Amino acid sequence: MAVMRTLLAAAALIAVSMPACSPPPTREERAQAAELARLAPLKQRYSGVIVGFDFAGPATLIVSLDIQAYIGTDDDTILAMKRDVLTRWRDAWTAGHPHRHATLHARWIDFVGKTILTQTVKV
Fold it and tell me: Of 3.40.50, 3.40.1260, 3.30.70, 1.25.40, which CATH number belongs to 26-122?
């Protein structure tokens, strides 16, 4: 019984100390987290159409869509959504990368990863 308690205590100690072993996030990871936080309200504004956001490298944003909802959305809303995503991401990227320039790419994909739309903006 004492051996079992010792093993459980050792396992608990290892489990508690494991997160402390991971390195702190890099500057790029912190910048991307801030960008995702600034984009998050758009998932609510365009609820059902925009499913999520991700990155494919430091200058490429992936916008995941529900393609059926996208097809059923009126043209004015689609234009506003595209403008909002690109504007918010550009502003967030600029805040996280002061004094840097880049061409930002936004790739809009459906649930199987097929590209529906691409956009670019220079910063």
Answer: 3.30.70
